[in-house]
Amino acid sequence: MAGHVEVDRLTYLLPDGRLLLHEVSFRVGDGVKAALVGPNGAGKTTLLRLVAGDLRPDDGRVVSSGGLGVMRQFIGDVRDGRSVHDLLLSVAPAQVRAAAETLADAESAIAARDDEATQLAYAQAVADYADAGGYDMEVVWDVCATASMGLSYDAIRDRPVTTLSGGEQKRLVLEALLRGPDQVLLLDEPDNYLDVPGKQWLEDRLRATDKTVLLVSHDRRLLAEVADRIVTVEDRGVWIHGGGFATYAKGREERISRLAERLRRWDEEHARLRRLVHTLRQTAANNDALASSYRAARTRLSRFEEAGPPQRPPKAQNVRIRLRGAVPASVPSSARTWSSPA
Ligand SMILES: Nc1ncnc2c1ncn2[C@@H]1O[C@H](COP(=O)(O)OP(=O)(O)O)[C@@H](O)[C@H]1O
Ligand SMILES: [Mg+2]
């Protein structure tokens, strides 16, 4: 089974009207591990939620194949009354989630009034849950519970999520996604709340999986060990580095100098056209033959200005992204100096 996700000219305005993302496009192909990085508040979580379908874009679209499995940012810090079963359902494929809801309703209906109609509805709901893959998922969850907590699924199914540590919550959900049927995983800071062995485990598993992964992380080690593309969210857009973290700093410097150079050329051409218009205005006043040259130069200048300057290089304060964690030996020294926290 293959999966991919493609974001096509996505534009998103915050509820207060601020433009957060403008015409963002990128593609994560089958089996690719892509990391989303960027300063706090740049819009990484929002972008992931747009891809997941939690939010609707104001413009543009998201196309994906293979099914999306989503781990939202605050798993690891669940404080509500949900059970482990609810938590696992929340990351299950949509059809399992829907069938489980119908089944739960049919169960409450029987509890309230046990007659032939409710029994029939219950039997149907059980059959539908089986068809949707619900029982297959429970078999997977049993493996996940054993792997992450050393307990059977039945033993933890009704426990409140709050009785699991942050690391246990994360690990259980990650196991379920990695072992589940969805082929594209969207992971928002999956390394948060994990201890050192937990992070090592996550790196190994993400490297080993055939699934397509788009993840947000601030951890240099995870980025270095797992990501083979890096998507940087900055200044309302994204910039794609086609390689891993080891070559990221160099790629970024090159991009910034390329943008600066393009902007410098634009400024130069702008100044040249303005000087030309200025000179021709003065000479055309005493020379009718030059009047049409003057008009032509003015038109060129206004067209040039209408087209506007090229993209500006990112602002100085955004060049440094806060990253944490030890830098692995695979990262060259240029990347190390760049990635020291601002
Ligand atoms: N519902 C909302 N209403 C207003 N502002 C929001 C809302 N959700 C997010 N934001 C703002 O959008 C920006 C991007 O947030 P987020 O996507 O969480 O960033 P990141 O994950 O990159 O840190 C932040 O400035 C945040 O405060
Ligand atoms: Mg976030």
What is this structure, in a nutshell?
This protein has 342 residues and is α/β, with parallel strands linked by helices. It contains 13 helices and nine strands.
How would you describe this protein?
This protein is of the alpha/beta class and 342 residues long. It has a domain at 83-172. Helices cover 49% and strands 17% of the residues. The chain contains 13 helices and nine strands. The protein has helices at residues 44-52, 84-90, 94-112, 116-131, 134-149, 153-156, 166-179, 196-208, 220-226, 248-284, 291-307, 316-319, 333-338; strands spanning 4-13, 19-28, 33-37, 59-65, 68-71, 184-188, 212-216, 229-234, 237-241. The strands form two sheets. It has a six-stranded mixed beta sheet with strand order 5-6-7-3-8-9, sandwiched between helices. Helix 8 links the parallel strand 6 and strand 7. Helix 10 (248-284) packs antiparallel against helix 11 (291-307). The relative contact order is 0.13. The structure holds adenosine-5'-diphosphate (ADP) and magnesium ion.
